[in-house]
Batch of 2 targets.
Target 1
Amino acid sequence: MSAATARRRGVLALPWIWLGLFVLAPFLIVLAISLSSAGYGSPPIDFFVGWQHGHPTFNINLDSFTLLASDSLYIRGFFNSIAIAGATTLLCLLVGYPMAYVMARAPARLQPLLVMLVILPFWTSSLIRVYAWIGILKENGLLNGLLLHLGLIGQPLVVLNTPIAVQIGMVYAYLPFLVLPLYATLQKLDWTLLEAAADLGAKPWAAFFCVTLPLSWPGTLAGALLVFVPASGEYLIPELLGSSSLPMISTVLWTEFFGNRDWPMASLIAVMLLLVLAIPLLFLRGGNAPDSMSGAGRV
Amino acid sequence: MAPLIRLEGLTKRFGDTIAAEDVTLDIVEGELFGLLGASGSGKTTLLRLLGGFEVPTTGRVLIDGVDVTMTPPYERPTNMVFQSYALFPHMTVAANVAFGLKQARLPKQQADARVEEALELVQLTGLGDRKPSQLSGGQRQRVALARALVLRPKVLLLDEPLSALDKKLREQTQFELMRLQRQLGITFVMVTHDQDEAMAMCSRIAVMDRGRVIEMGTPRAIYERPQSRFVADFIGGANIIDAEPAGPGRVGLPGLGIECVMTDALPTKGWVALRPERIALSHAPVAGGPWPAGLIEAVAFHGDFQMYRVRLDSGVELRVATSNVPGDPGPGERAFLSWAADAPVALTR
């Protein structure tokens, strides 16, 4: 093996080393903790592999598994998280697709400005942005003030600390993650294809469904995943805008970890969340076989 | 016969630039009509106005007697072969060809038969399951053709149909397009910047410059009897010489200091065009003069002919294309030029 080949293999190995150190190893630790029992030491666990009298001992604790399967709190938490994340993804698609489309079709000199406007909110801490929503949604907040002033409502609406507030906050926070990859895909779309579709008799909507939508699929998928995956583990927004109106899996996990100091349970929840998200993703990738053009908008 | 296509005073402005200016022309059914011009001459804009991709600033577009000026592309009886072909990359060849039939809601069985027929027409039978990315450039172009022709349009619009092909394939495709046009009897309107291509293929040509149609006619008429300096120079290249009337059958060429016979009539002061290949070059003075003479400045060998640049004694430079000059004169040698009475063509603008 020449030095150049060795160096190239070394470079290629880097991402694998990175993934091994910072993804696989932590995951295995979390998995190991989930199989151990809660203890009173620091950290508060009795590891499932031990060493006594010159022999290794195994003390696998599956209590967390049975509890997880039997207590509806956890199931509800998972369900709420997935439902909110799913709704967030759908709403982001409904709002974000037209946004990305308009951005991609805007005059070329305007486009950097529009991208800038989408990115701009990131320059403020997300905590502050979520707090700002409290100011808008609370009983004597901006929204109620405006609606009362316009005479559209007689009584202030109760929005804050309801699932609706969580939903609004989530869509607001995750919209850019959908818009940006979708914009990148749509921007590369050859608009002559739409002229060709029109020339062949397709009305604007038919052209959109037959040409634009399928060709923007990679970007749509990338954007939807970038919203769905982190949204299902979101902790801050449900906690601040929803109070405890909607138990999410992330809040349950927090309580187990910090409140109950039940590390095995918290770890198990983390492992389950990963599985719940990862397994459908594997199917999605398998169904979306790579072909010549699907790489265009991968992010 | 009523024209199939009529453009009336068509003008298209993009902001301050005028892409087409006051274009009026008729195209008869069954023609292979060429829009010829350099880039930026407005030929593509004119084609896009025909296809419905642009709305004119003023003027009207009539197809088969119907005013379609405001009709969107999806309701026009025209189909286009785009310069980039614009094949749908996510669809197979067959799905590309079937696209228009599907939009027209043709029953699947009929559509399949029509697709098969169209693929056969362009000799792509058996390639229906391929994706456009798996085809060669020439095959892609034929898919684009099949996709447009399968709808049996009244007019087929072709935007630089041969520009993306290599030289050999281009010539083959030229004949292919002409065959299809004759076989189907569909009116073709073709945009090209290549005068050879236009001359070889088209029944009539409109030569465009800066948004205007400068001249229109059969290739032969445009080539042999141009009316304007622009067309005389653009098509095939010509020596453009200042000229003035000098009595019946004669023309004065003050720049050359001579008068000569000319069949074509020059009504007022103007110019004549002299094709390089219509000028004879010899070593010795020619009878029947006075004829111009000068020094050969350069010779370029082109295989089937040589192009001479001759600096006349009067200072004017003429290009002469000829083959088999006895003695094979080279640069620095003296040359005597002459031409037949029907060689100079009178130009008035």
Target 2
Amino acid sequence: MTTSSSSRPPAAGDDAPAVPRADCTADSAGGVTFDVAVAAAPDAALVLRRGGRAGDEVRLPLTPVSPGRLRAVLPSTVDLPEGRWEAHVYGGGTDLTVRPGIRDLRALVSRTPDPRTDAVAVRIPYATADGSLAVRSWRRAPHAEAGDILFDDASMTVEGRLYGAGLGPGAAVEARLRGDRDRVHREPVTGAEHAFSFTLPYAPLAAGRDGAKQAWDLWLTAADGTPAIRVARLLDDIADKQPVFKYPVLPVGDDGKTVAFPYYTLDNDLTVQIGTP
Amino acid sequence: MHISFLLHNAYAVGGTIRTTFNLAQTLAEEHDVEITSVFRHRDEPAMTPPQGVPLGHLVDLRSQSPGYDGNRPEHARPARVFPTGDGRHPQYSRLTDQRIGAHLQGLKADVVVGTRPGLNVHIARQARPGTVRVGQEHLTLDGHRYRLRRELRYRYALLDAVTTVTEADARSYREKFGLPGVRIEAMANIVPPARLAPADGEGKVVVAAGRFAPGKRYDLLIRAFAQVVAAHPDWKLRIYGSGETAPKLRALIDELRLHNHVFLMGVADPLEAEWPKGSIAAVTSDLEAFGMTIVEAMRCGVPVVSTDCPHGPREIIRDGVDGRLVPMGDADAVARALLDLVEDDGLRKRMGRAAFENSARFDPVRIAERHAALYADLVARGTNDRTRSTLRDNLHRVPGVLIDEAFTLRRKVLSTLRKGRTA
């Protein structure tokens, strides 16, 4: 097809689908503001829906802030259970998915909540693979936040912070083999109150492996008799940690057949993989 | 004025497309502007196109489209008008020769603007008489291969103006091409103001962004940052982008045990939101034709530590005022400049504010006005020439046309000779 100045095509944008675009601003407490370029309607709302499940939704009223611009606020105090929440704009009988605009997440980059807080709420607006706006949410009470991970020849050391719990006698980390409830390896946790550190040698995890890849999930018990806390990395602006936080793959033993490395799961929880190079 | 831009592919992602969209959008406020894309490979442009600017295409490469051109026999034959020295030549064909030629012949614009060497050659050879012909160069003359330089030197004599993105490159064209009667002007790329509030200078993050190509020297940046981490372990480096050197950079991070401090972030869209998360930006390239990311960071109030590589950085950064320029390929120098800013909060914030203020000169309106003034001058000159005498025009044009024909003939002869040899 040839176009010329005499038979101009319509301007790009004329036939653009009427998908609203939302800009997001996150605050350091876990709140998110959504600014949507859409016409006002009396019943306009920003609806967050989880995993397509009916009934699992949070409605936030959209109120005008300037002509053609509506705002919805997700306060840190509104409970948003853990998961992936897709954003929709509802109003005047229509329900549209939302395209991500510019996301100002600078307040999340080096977020350090008060360690005495009961619960840590994290909401990170992100663009889904198909290009719509969604929010990842975590609410952990208590929470064990993984920080730097250090390595020597045969082990890894995780430094982190505890929220909503303090270290006490019997503090330990458990590596639990996924798919085998009986295989658990324990190591002591050191530190003071909210700062923790543990060293996990790889050899005991690799012992007795039948050649298959193993995933060992890390759980922290702050003190004897308290429930185990999943070790995770949540407190920054990165919705999906796995591709960004990469760690050295180290050999285990001298036979050259086994390697180990930590990684973050799709839920940003910390796991150690024992596998083959 | 009626201004028509000719782009390689307006539906893809790239710096030339973005800067053309920005320019077209701004010029459209006062002029009649359109964009023609040689190729179209998808339904919607990947980047937001300018509103109210008609966007057309010449060759449809969408395999599901009724107007699909990809299987036409002419599209399998190598292009003759589009120069072989332009790296995009394999994508061009006898079909593009015809389609672009017909488009230019039918175009009733006052000004036609090409956006890469091959398209500038098309305009030089095929635009209607009386249309002002402008060739934009987004790369650099020194970066073009010998074969392309040799051809451009003849072809560009038939343009009314060549615009480069730096003064340094404009000088190269003036000194090495010496094109009589052709205006050669540097026009910096447009960088719109940031939509977010500028950085506050507090974030302990250094940000870099670009293609992971060898010439970007992110290996140098990572080595330099190792020195920063040694003294200030609370600082992090985030590198945005993707590309061929990613595995090597990953291996270097592992080797230097920087996995807690240096992060390969992947591609961010829009990138704009990432700059204010940091308080320093870094560019360690061996070559920057312009240095778009430098200006983008500055527009977010982030001072840039950059190598003083050709051509763009020294025309953007005022060393010690709104950023730092350091010698090329010197990791220690990069580290020292980063440490100066890491260790002095006041200096970092002052430079950030200066970067924010000084980068306002890349505003769409200011840059578009310079393009518009050049076009208006050329349109006026053309009219004067036509009413007064066609002699001056002919003096410029005739040798060019003769050379043009001689050049084409020579290539035909060579091509026949080659065919004869293989037969």
